Batch of 2 targets.
Target 1
Amino acid sequence: MDNNKNYAVTETKDVEAFFHGYAADFDSIYGHTKKRSVSDKFLDTYFRKSMRLRYDLVLKYTANTNIKTILDVGCGGGVYCEALLNMGKTVTGLDIAEGMLELTEIKTKKFVAEGKVNYVHSGYLEHEFTEKFDAAVLVGFFDYIKTPLEVFKKLETEITKELLMSFPKSGGFLGWQRKIRYNMRNCPLYYYSKKDLETLFSKIGWSGKVEIFDIERDFFVRVKF
Ligand SMILES: C[S@@+](CC[C@H](N)C(=O)[O-])C[C@H]1O[C@@H](n2cnc3c(N)ncnc32)[C@H](O)[C@@H]1O
């Protein structure tokens, strides 16, 4: 029996359950919908600056007219899917949590008739695509991934031009506090130092293709194939 794999599968189920339950509240992080407690509002504000910076970087790089088809891995509430569709891209949103994918569907349903958007309800590593994409967006995704190298290996087979990814930084009191809050709800959380990222990119052979941006609470990474 592969214990390591079993452990990862259980973790994936925990992430799925956490985000399915979180869906109703999730959009408030972007400043919309439901009421938040004072402490949640404080943390939202703190993390929102990084969220804005990474959002701007994704839109800047995907504006390239060579990028026509985009896979949004861990699309969550669909903020990126919606923005990319509004830019004229063809987008596939994939998410493990049904409740989150439903939020994406609500935001983007007007693009279904034109065949511009597809939805996949699955864990990323568990889903086999038959097509390739020009680019992939993985924002706020690696926070929940125990085996990033496996994800990189799969991305290499599916993405032809560019990856745009965020990785939460290790260190800091609020990062530590966030980890406790998530762990109390059974959701694993992973942080990365710049050195961790460099080691991972060296292992996959991407060192010469990677740009790492230091943006507040995250590292934003662009990989050009
Ligand atoms: C913090 S949200 C980010 C959503 C969106 N990318 C954004 O930045 O607004 C992370 C999302 O990743 C999804 N997720 C986590 N692990 C996943 C996996 N292994 N496969 C697919 N989706 C996953 C969660 O369900 C959740 O919707």
Target 2
Amino acid sequence: MQNNTSISDAMSSNQSFWQHKYGRYQPNPPLPAGVHKVDVLIIGGGYTGLTTARELKRDAPELSVMLLDANDIGFGASGRNGGFNMTLFGMEPEVTVFRWGKNKATQAQSYMQDAVEYVRTLIDSEQLDSDYEHTGMWRVAYSAKQEKRLRKTFGLLQELGGNESYQLLSQSDAQQKLKSPRVRAAIYEPGTGILDPCKHVRELKRLAEQAQVNIFENSPVLDIEKLDGTNKVKTANAVVHAQKLVLATNAWSHTLQGSKKLRNRQRPVWTYQIVSDPLTAAEWESVGWQDRMSIEDNRQLVHYMRITKCGRITMGGGSIGIDVTEDMNKWHDAIIWEKLKAHFDWLFPALKHKKVHYQWGGAVSSNMDMTPEIGFLGDENIVYANGCIGHGVSLTQYNGRVIADLLLGKDTERSRFWIVNRKAIAVPPGKLLAWLGVNSINAALKTVDWYEERELNRSVSEGEEQ
Ligand SMILES: Cc1cc2nc3c(=O)[nH]c(=O)nc-3n(C[C@H](O)[C@H](O)[C@H](O)COP(=O)(O)OP(=O)(O)OC[C@H]3O[C@@H](n4cnc5c(N)ncnc54)[C@H](O)[C@@H]3O)c2cc1C
């Protein structure tokens, strides 16, 4: 569809490149004024909420299911991510093993492999227009220290996810597929893919509506209250009485009024992306990016990059944005965008002349122990999910399937996965302690990257983080 909005208008209304590229979008009307009654109300229309809604209606068509989103569908992380349908759980496999042990880390890897397959099968079987490509993913090392750690990670990943799931590429193997002088070694994981996040989330909306879910957009929930065994949810001019409630608000969860517990489960962490002008055939030749695989580096503050369907390179990550207030308004960060361009130039010197076409930001939900969580508030009639960090494309959709199981009282292998009802570490109370908590984690990650990349001698202008 034709999009007449200019890039500067789209950026000033905090749209992602994918949302802008999507073209004209007609949101559903807001929730009409008055009192409404439903069996299940879902708050948040990203991957988590939309998948839960559709799966519920498919399993129990007799239930009335309503979904409210504060914005247009796809405004949240689901419409603005890198689009990696990937198996990484939480922060890093080493961190998961350290915190939870090998047995749980193995279960987590298997859950994530199922999650990737769930998304791929859904797209195939429903013929979703999500621009999906199952082209695999690389994890790359730039420095000798990173390579040493990468080789250890390779062994660990094989232990957790199966030998056949990963291959180790030496520098010369890697050079055959990507002509970047900076890549020293890579892990290749074939069983992953990339998609257009905004097209995909709006396809999920279409599926949910086909299943008879009632979706209202631009309908922010202002308060939640327990009343005579049901949940009373208020918007600006309407009230919804719901037997069961799903809080699928991801990085916004701490802003929801009505539950102290939910307010201390997570905080937003902001991540930023840039996308280049389209590359010419000669430029693709010079960078030699074969197979359209997606790429992450194995830094702590990871960069992620991929090719778009329209022939551009998009890159995100590196530095992060932190704001523990409830403003949710750090959509732009010119300094981080500049650092991303510097990293792009450093990684692909042959493309230094390429201009940035568009830049944007978005919030991921991060908790204190860097581990995703699905939990109940009080009784089992309110379910919430968050803490997916930057690895939620597959996870949150599969979590939606699990939440539907939980609401229907189904005992399945996936609903017994250990992140369900786990005891997560609460975010410290008050803005100062929360700020100190999140900043200490950020400082520790930056220090590891600085230590491992000292030999690269990168200056600030070349994408150095410190
Ligand atoms: C820039 C970026 C890059 C990323 N890249 C990747 C990647 O490549 N691979 C990967 O696996 N993960 C990635 N992620 C993470 C992934 O996008 C998320 O984990 C996932 O999309 C979260 O889905 P969700 O449905 O839980 O939340 P969201 O999509 O954030 O949806 C939450 C919704 O709740 C709504 N909401 C909030 N408050 C209210 C309220 N009061 N009332 C009503 N509605 C409300 C919001 O409007 C929003 O639409 C990235 C995230 C970002 C931001």
